[in-house]
């Protein structure tokens, strides 16, 4: 598993938490689809 660093909301101190299982991925609003594909 790779760790990929992104600047999602233009703030260095904000984290993005994503929950994923076999059927569903919960991703916060504003997260670009192109970044989700990586």
List keywords for this structure.
two-stranded antiparallel sheet; 2 strands; single chain; 38 residues; little secondary structure
Largest sheet: 2 strands, antiparallel
The helix-strand sequence is: EEH
- The count of helical stretches stands at 1
Based on secondary structure, the structural category is little secondary structure
Helix content range: 10-25%
Low-confidence stretches are none
- Beta strand %: 5-15%
Mean of residue pLDDT values:
69
The CA-CA distance between the termini, in Å, is 12 Å
- From the alpha-carbon coordinates, what is the Rg to the nearest angstrom? 11 Å
According to DSSP, the number of beta strands is 2
Shape: globular
With strands numbered from the N-terminus, the spatial order across the biggest sheet is 1-2
Count of the domains: 1
Question: Your description of this structure?
Answer:
The chain has 38 residues and is low in regular secondary structure. The protein contains 1 helix and 2 strands; from the N terminus they run ββα. The chain has one helix at 33-36, and strands at 19-20, 25-26. It has a two-stranded antiparallel sheet with strand order 1-2. The longest helix has 4 residues, at 33-36. 0% of the residues are buried.
Q: How does the SSE layout of this entry go?
A:
Blueprint: E1 19-20, E2 25-26, H1 33-36
Antiparallel strand pairs: 1-2
């Amino acid at each position: 598993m790779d760790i990929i660093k992104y600047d999602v909301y233009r703030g260095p101190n904000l984290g993005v938490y994503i929950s994923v299982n076999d059927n569903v991925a919960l991703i916060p609003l504003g997260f670009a689809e192109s970044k989700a594909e990586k």
